[in-house]
Here is the input.
Amino acid sequence: MHSSIGPLEEALALYVEQSALCQALSSESLVLWDCGLGAGTNAFAAIAAVLGAQAEAPSNHRLQVVSFENDLSGLELALENEKILPYIAQFREPANHVLDRWRKLGPDESLRETISISSNVTWTVFDGDFRTALERAPAPDLIYYDFYSPKVCPDLWTKEVFSLVHSRSNPKCRLFTYSSATRVHVALLDSGFYVGRGQSTGAKNHTTAAAMRMEDLKSPLGPSFLSRLERSHIYSLEERAVLRARLSLHPQWRQSIT
Ligand SMILES: C[S@@+](CC[C@H](N)C(=O)[O-])C[C@H]1O[C@@H](n2cnc3c(N)ncnc32)[C@H](O)[C@@H]1O
Here is the structure.
C-alpha cells in the first residue's frame, strides 16, 4: 500500500532502508519475500538498491527476491504507465518475460518463474495465493508484507497466516509492514513473532517491524501494549480478558521494560 509520499519513496523508506537491506547483504546472502508484487515497486526498489550497492562494493553474497502475487495484471498496468512509474523502465525486460509466461498459462496452471537479474541477484515470481505458494518458496530472511490493508483483505493478516509465515522463516528473519493496526500486532504476537514499532514514513506515523528474535527489533513493544489492549474498543470485554491472558505469556515482555 503506497501513501501520499509516492510509491518509490515509500518502498525505499519503509522497506529497503528500514530493513537495511544493502548493509545486511554485505555480510550474508539473503532471501527476500516481496508479499504482494502489485506494480513491483518494492521488489524493484530493493533490486535496484542492491545492484547499485554491489556496483560500488562488489560482494559474493546473493539476493533472491521472491515475489508473491495472485493477479499479475498490476504489473502489466505498471508497464503500460512507465511515465508515471519510471522505476519500471530498468526492469521492463524481466517483467515482460514474466508476463509473457503468465499469459500462456492454462486455466489450472500457475507460474513459478526465476530470472537472473545479475550474477548475484535473482527474481522469482510465484503467481497464485500467497498462503499456498509460500510452502514452495525458499525460506525468507527478510519479508516486505504489503498486501491490501487488514480492513480490505482481513484473511491475509491473521494469526493463521502469520503462523505459516513464522514456520517458514529463517531464525533471524525480520518482517516489515506499513500496517500498525492493533489486530495486526496481536496476530503477529500470537504467531510467535516479536513485534516492534517501525519507523514513520511520510504520511504514515506508525509502521511495524517484527522479528523471529527480540534482539533484531530496534523499538520493541513493551508491556504497556497489554494495558492499551485492555482499553481498546476494537475488542469486547471478554475478548480483551482472553487476549491479555494469552499474550501476557509471550516471551517479548520478559525481555523488555517499557
Ligand atoms: C498493496 S498491493 C502491493 C503493492 C506492491 N507491493 C508494490 O510495491 O507495488 C497488494 C497486492 O497483493 C495482491 N494480493 C492480494 N491477495 C493476494 C493473495 N491472497 N495472494 C497473493 N497476492 C495477493 C494484490 O493483487 C495486489 O497486487
The chain has a mean pLDDT of 93. The CA atoms of residues 60 and 221 lie 36 Å apart. The first strand starts at residue 30 and ends at 35.
